Amino acid sequence: MDSLQAALRVAGSGLSAQSARLRVVSENLANAQSTGATPGADPYRRKTITFENTFDRVAGQDVVAVKQVGEDQSAFQVQQDPGNPAADEKGAVKMPNVNTISEMSDMREANRSYEADLQLIKQSRDLISMTIDLLKGTS
């Protein structure tokens, strides 16, 4: 496979991985205040995403892929809110283990990686077009 086409496949795998990462971050942010439905029930548990290198035989390159979407097992925060339907008999409500500042940072990093992969695809596409134009001119 041509090196430029291989670069396109590698960058495409990066786009796919980063879009999955953005989906997980958006789910975490959307549920940052989602408590349990019943008194004492566990609230939303933060999702995590891990990646792995896999070998793409067509491209002859290592590409990135989602290895697993899991759950963060860190402890829930507990707040006193006796009027909340999720409050236990002591008025304590378990809150999700989502840190919005951390999620926003992760979102910014995923966005930058996504933009870099897009730029790589644009550059590779331009180089392929230039090569085709050059070959057309020599016939």
From TrEMBL:
Record Pfam families: Flg_bb_rod (PF00460), Flg_bbr_C (PF06429)
Record keyword Lipid biosynthesis present: no
Annotated stretches, region: Disordered: 74-94
Localisation: Bacterial flagellum basal body
Keyword check for Chaperone: no
GO biological process, one term: bacterial-type flagellum-dependent swarming motility
Domain Flagellar basal body rod protein N-terminal: start-end pairs: 8-37
Any one GO CC term of the record: bacterial-type flagellum basal body, rod
Domain annotation Flagellar basal-body/hook protein C-terminal: ranges: 90-133
Keywords: Bacterial flagellum, Cell projection, Cilium, Flagellum
NCBIfam families registered for this protein in UniProt: FlgC
UniProt family annotation: Belongs to the flagella basal body rod proteins family.
Record note on quaternary structure: The basal body constitutes a major portion of the flagellar organelle and consists of four rings (L,P,S, and M) mounted on a central rod. The rod consists of about 26 subunits of FlgG in the distal portion, and FlgB, FlgC and FlgF are thought to build up the proximal portion of the rod with about 6 subunits each.
UniProt-recorded name of the protein: Flagellar basal-body rod protein FlgC
Organism: Lichenibacterium minor
